[in-house]
UniProtKB/TrEMBL annotation:
The active site is at E438 (proton acceptor). PANTHER family: ELECTRON TRANSPORT OXIDOREDUCTASE, PEROXISOMAL ACYL-COENZYME A OXIDASE 1. GO terms for cellular component: peroxisome. The keyword Lipid metabolism applies. It comes from Magallana gigas (Pacific oyster). This is Acyl-coenzyme A oxidase. Keywords: ATP-binding, FAD, Fatty acid metabolism, Flavoprotein, Lipid metabolism, Nucleotide-binding, Oxidoreductase, Peroxisome. Pathway: Lipid metabolism; peroxisomal fatty acid beta-oxidation. It is found in: Peroxisome.
Amino acid sequence: MSAAAILDLGKIPSKVNPELQSERDCSSLTPYISEITAIVDGGRNNTEKRRQIERILFKDPLFRDCAIDSVYKPRDEMYARGVERSVRLFALKEEYNWTDEEFGIAVYVINHQYSLGLHTVMFIPALERLSTEQQKAKWLHLARNYQIIGTYAQTELGHGTNLQGLETIATYDATTEEFILNTPTVTSIKWWPGALGKSVNYAIILATLIIDGKKHGMHPFLTPLRSTEDHKPLPGVKVGDIGPKLTFNTVDNGYLILNNVRIPRENMLMKNAQVSREGHFTSRGPSKANYSAMILVRVTIVNWCSVILSNSSTITVRYSAVRRQSTLDSSSEKESKILDYQTQQYKVFPSLATAYALFFVSKTLKNRYLKTYAEIMKGNFKNLPEIHCQSAGMKALSAEMTVELLEISRQACGGHGYLAASALGDAVASAKALVTVEGENTVLYLQVARYLMKRFAAAVSGERLSGSTEYLCMDPIKYSCPINSPGDCMNVSLLCQVYRFRAYRMISKAARMLQRDIEGGKKQHKAMNDNLVQLVRAARAHLLYCMMVDYKESMNQLQISVPVSKALNNLLVFFTVFNIVKNAGDFLETESIGLPQMEWLKETEVKMLAEIRPDAVSLVDAFDIHDNTHGSVLGCYDGNVYERMLKSTQNEPLNQCDVHYSFHQHLKPFLQRNNTSKL
Ligand SMILES: Cc1cc2nc3c(=O)[nH]c(=O)nc-3n(C[C@H](O)[C@H](O)[C@H](O)COP(=O)(O)OP(=O)(O)OC[C@H]3O[C@@H](n4cnc5c(N)ncnc54)[C@H](O)[C@@H]3O)c2cc1C
């Protein structure tokens, strides 16, 4: 960097940093980047569509710095910007006639930096899934045209996980044909729903239905909260923001107190259960059907994790290709790129590989969900438990992996990764929310484990299983480790057999432990609680196996050129091997592999680092993430890291004047407290 550039903090070179350019020049994958981009976007037309959406959004200053400007703004300003962005986004949707899918692309492009996401992500899908046809005709167009703005209010101060513990009540009054909603205790106050605090005027409220003193389970009630005229809370409604969070502070997650709020009978969303005028209750389908909107959100979170990791890998790989530190070869005059250190590759490539893995896995999961959803809409609930298990489990596993890998990505950028302007800290904190939202991870793993225990018992009693648990019918005696040479470690089909056996053994072990305790006289609940840790381990093993199979099969379906196939296969092999080595203890303990195989796998793992290294920059370029989307000074396409870091200091409010007012108010009087004369 020249001295002139140092003086001119706002100047970014017009050329790509030669460090990054040389990576692109030397990667044999570079000519094929657009082929991978098309895979990630779901076709070349979609790539063009996304870029068009980027052009529309980023010509507007409101969206240009959205990924990072919140760092420099106070909370209420952030919220106001978030609302402004929401409104502009909704207007653009109407102006350009964006489909829901295109709107979803726009949301990813602006990195979710808007306030009213819950309206699109939960409120509308819940209306679609929980309303009768008549109710849809009345409410859906109002929601879709933004004449009402809503959220989904389930969680309370006292309960989130245990839905049966929710205390909000909706009591039917047959004389007026109304429900009366109340949050009768402190713990029943709704707490957390996004956009509830200041934004929405409607909410779908989950409450226990009571008719003539009798409880009829949890049901959704469409409830007006604020006047559509002046936005003031309606009588009986007290609502506000719950305060700042680790991230997502553009969103006004809120609290809600209801005191005898009356809504018409027609406002109970009655697809799955009905209350007649006279107060007669009828149910159709399983009670779990009321939570089908949550399944969709969990499926979406798996994809979101892939996008988060694509963003962070773009940042860490590009930065690692630009940053030089020390030298590998003492005879060299030039310092080495940090990306050339094997340990750096071991920090950065797992994220890259997992970003691709979760992309393929989420695609398969979404297709599976859409198929099951179509069945459910026709009243066929047969596959609901399977899709519930898959979506809950994959959400938990993806979020867990993402948080772990993101933190390592942040560390991989050294001190600069700790700067807010790197965007990595915010990404880590945001990903942390994904572990908790839409079902806390441990709780979801345990739901998967309970499902597995039931399926295992069915297999033991001779039932033929289908779906993800089909393998529980296997005869473990017939297993022998299929890895017979170091070369076999590159064969993902063989590795999947290893994953399958490990899952089988861990599930059967959990079942055995439970049975042992119950036969030993423990009550079912006590036996369960005494084995929860093993149950979670078993669930994880099952989910990791499912993930590997879905990833491999999704890749098999691709029709791609040889260089792309080679590069993506390198990532597939690395991801598969990496997760065995990471869980080495389990694989050895279950005798899915032996010690020699583990040695071979470890060698393969580091060998794959070297295979991925030359194409690493091309593989992140292929995500084609706009600089304004990731918002990081470390990860821009041009690689001008240091100049961008300098420029970002201009955004810092402290730098808006040479002498800060606190100097005059505090420091100066203190420094000069004993001065009798000027120095
Ligand atoms: C950013 C954010 C946005 C949110 N948005 C919304 C929203 O829009 N609408 C909404 O309704 N809610 C929302 N929530 C709330 C969220 O859905 C809940 O926080 C989540 O479901 C977890 O429930 P909980 O907070 O009650 O956790 P808890 O269940 O209290 O979990 C605390 C601990 O207890 C453990 N635990 C709990 N039960 C069990 C069990 N049975 N077995 C073993 N361990 C257990 C958990 O594993 C965890 O370690 C949001 C939360 C966040 C963080």
